[in-house]
Structures are given as C-alpha cells and as structure tokens.
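dumping this here so i dont lose it
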C-alpha cells in the first residue's frame, strides 16, 4: 500500500466522516420502515415479542405474529427483556420505536467492536514488522478496518434494516478469533459458545478447534454452552421449563431442518426451499433445476439434497487440507501466521452458511473476517498488495450482493448471484492458504542445499 503509514488525505477524511454520518439516516429509515408501516416489518419484532413472553411467563416458541415464529435458543429472548414488546404499545413496555432505535445502535456498536478487535489482533500478530510497528490511525490502520466493512456493506446494511442478530454473531466471531491470535484459547472457546447459543448454526465451527486439536478451546466451549443453554434459562424459567424449551426447539426447528423431524410448523418460514430467498447450496441447486418460480416444488428431491451434502463436505475437506498444509509450513518457519488463521475460520464460516438449511442474503455479512484476513495476507506478501484477480473479486463482491434486493431481479437471487460471489472469495481464501505454503517450502529447500554445500 502506497504511503501506508502516512496520515489520511483530505478526501479520505471527508469520505470517513460521510460514512460515519450515513449511519444516522440509515437508522432513522430502518426505525421508520419497521414501525410506521401498516404491518411491523423486520425480525426485531419477533425478538421483542419473545422477550415479552419471557416477562409474561408464556411459551416463547408459541409466540407468532401470523408470519414468523421465534426460532432461537431462549437466551436471546431473556437478554432482550428490557426491549420487550407484545406487538403493540403498552404502558409496561418501552415504545416500539425506542426499542428499535436501541437495537439498531447496538448492532452498529457490535460491528465497530468486532472489526476493531480483530484488526488490532491481526496487527499485533502480523508476520510483517512494519505492520506491527505502524502508528495508530495511519492509512493502513484505517484501511484494515474500513475496506472489509465496505466490501461487505450491502449485507451489513441489510442486517441493520431487518434488525437481525448477525452483527452480534459477527462481533462474537471476531472476538473469538482475536482471543485465538492472542493465545487465549479458553476465552476463545467461551466466545464461540455464545455464538452457538445465539444462532445455533455456528455449532458447525466446532470443526475449528477440532482440526487444531485444541482441547482447552473445546472444554471452554462446552462450559459456555451449558451456561447459555441450561444454567441461565433454568435460573429464569426453572429447570424443567428450560429443558422442555430446548427439546421443543429441537422438535420444531433442528430435526425438521436436518430432514429428520415431523413437525412442519416452521416449514414455510425456514425449512421449505421456496419459503425464503436462501443462498445455500441446496437452494441454489434446487432453483437452478426449477428456474420458474411458478410450479417450483417446495422441497428439494432426495438426490439434490444428497448432492448438496456431498458438495458441502468436499468444500469443507478442501478448506481443512489447505489449512493443515499451511499450518505445517508456518510451524517450520516459526513466525506468526494470524492472517491465515483468520482466513481458515472465514472459510469455515462460509461453509457453514452454504451447508445451512437456510442462508439469507444478510448472512453474508459474516464473510467480513475472511475479507480482513485476505487483505492482511496480501499486505504481508512480497508484493504488498492484493493481486489483480483478488482486487477485482473484492470490488465485485458488494455489487454482486446488491441486485438481488431490487424488484424484478428475482432471477438473480434465485440463481444464487450472492452465493457465487461469496464462493469466489472462498476460492480466493483456499488459494491463499495453498499457494503461500509453496514458496516457503522452496526457500527452505534452497537454504538447506546452500548449508549442505
């Protein structure tokens, strides 16, 4: 990066100020859109209703607004009880617009925290001495925090507009990665467990400590899961109710999502392929085989489902093999390899989304750690910048996530444009892990030959 340790130029400072202040009108519009319409929009309304059910002693999994149910573990509803709202304003609850405003600000703060804590850990553990010693607030300091945010801006904005929990999950992922890079493995396991307690599907990421053979990480994750899924709900509802709630969540969501349950009460919301604009491997394959929306089957065939699992399994194995190869070489070098650790977890995060029964467009904000790892790895390379292909793919990623949100372009959404855009980043990450191992082997071999001579 040219003049990496210099100060921001005048135009860069103006752009930064504009980006910061753009958060305010976006938040105002999000609150207006989700509260002032004839029907309350967004997903926050479901979270607030479930929180009200906690306060009222009702079953959180029976709560619905005739459109959607609460489909998360109980902890999120318990934590959100200060923002609880039954679906209409009552004296005992905060005004709905106030709850929405607080939830929006919380999402923005989670984004800022996650990006900064991971960037700081990457800088601290970088293999490049110049990056480790760079002054705070220099151009590269800002670039590591802003460029990943801009690349993932469409799904980030989509998440904020819907009032989803993805930015909270993103902050947890970033904190877990930062703990790994600082060598705090127990803390990292606790962080990852909270992401599972919030959104369930991050349980897939237990592959990360498993592949690394990190027993302390796994134990900490188990402790966090016991606290989040059993101890806190039991203290709130009582042990029997907490157990029944977990079992009901498995019956109505987990088992049907895996194709093993009979309860179809959430099928239209999450389980059927046509129920949502999913970007999972299964949904993209199914939509490709049935390009016309009218007459498209609600459920994918057994053959398509099996094929999607095979593809997901192969992609996961490829990511693991590339990481193990890279890690072996990094150990021989005896140098920090934080960027590639982040890239590996970023690959697993995308694998998690692809393999999930449902993958909404706004889920792709979780690709931010992969983008951040790719950028730092490029700056640490001899070239000091991403190659032409990487630069093009990073520039195209935000634009590929935009068209699917516009009316009349449903064919791009059904065809998996956002899926293929993220897949290009996944391939870029695998290539980065695999390719950077080769020069090291060659250099080590050359040095050995010279010493022998």
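and the seq i came up w/
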């Amino acid at each position: 990066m040219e003049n990496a340790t210099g100060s921001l130029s005048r135009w860069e400072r103006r752009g930064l100020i504009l980006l910061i202040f753009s958060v305010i009108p976006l938040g105002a519009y999000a609150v207006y859109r989700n509260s002032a319409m004839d029907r309350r929009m967004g997903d926050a309304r479901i979270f607030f209703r479930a929180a009200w059910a906690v306060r009222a002693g009702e079953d959180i999994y029976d709560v619905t607004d005739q459109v959607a149910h609460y489909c998360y573990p109980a902890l999120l509803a318990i934590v959100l009880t200060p923002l609880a709202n039954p679906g209409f304003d009552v004296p005992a609850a905060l005004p709905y617009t106030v709850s929405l405003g607080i939830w929006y600000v919380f999402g923005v703060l989670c984004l800022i925290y996650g990006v900064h804590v991971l960037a700081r850990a990457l800088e601290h553990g970088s293999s490049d001495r110049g990056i480790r010693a760079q002054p705070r607030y220099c151009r590269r300091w800002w670039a590591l925090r802003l460029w990943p945010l801009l690349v993932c801006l469409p799904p980030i904005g989509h998440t904020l507009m819907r009032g989803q929990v993805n930015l909270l999950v993103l902050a947890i992922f970033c904190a877990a990665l930062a703990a790994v890079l600082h060598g705090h493995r127990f803390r990292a396991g606790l962080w990852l467990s909270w992401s599972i307690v919030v959104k369930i599907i991050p349980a897939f990421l237990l592959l990360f400590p498993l592949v690394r053979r990190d027993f302390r990480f796994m134990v900490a994750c188990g402790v966090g899961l016991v606290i989040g899924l059993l101890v806190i709900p039991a203290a709130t509802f009582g042990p029997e109710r907490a157990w029944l709630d977990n079992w009901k969540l498995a019956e109505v969501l987990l088992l049907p999502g895996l194709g093993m349950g009979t309860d179809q009460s959430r099928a239209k919301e999450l389980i059927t392929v046509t129920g949502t604009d999913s970007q999972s491997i299964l949904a993209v394959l199914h939509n490709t085989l049935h390009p016309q929306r009218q007459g498209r089957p609600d459920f994918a065939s057994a053959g398509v489902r099996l094929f999607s699992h095979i593809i997901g399994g192969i992609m996961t194995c490829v990511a693991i093999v590339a990481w193990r190869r890279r890690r072996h070489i990094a150990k021989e070098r005896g140098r920090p390899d934080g960027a590639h650790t982040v890239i590996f977890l970023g690959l697993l995060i995308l694998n998690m989304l692809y393999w999930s029964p449902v993958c909404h467009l706004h889920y792709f904000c979780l690709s931010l750690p992969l983008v951040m790892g790719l950028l730092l790895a490029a700056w640490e390379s001899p070239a000091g910048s991403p190659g032409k292909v990487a630069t093009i793919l990073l520039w195209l990623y935000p634009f590929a996530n935009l068209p699917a949100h516009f009316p009349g372009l449903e064919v791009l959404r059904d065809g998996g444009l956002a899926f293929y855009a993220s897949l290009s980043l996944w391939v870029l990450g695998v290539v980065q892990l695999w390719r950077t191992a080769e020069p090291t082997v060659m250099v080590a071999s050359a040095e050995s030959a010279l010493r022998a001579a």
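Residues 438-453 have pLDDT under 50 and may be disordered.
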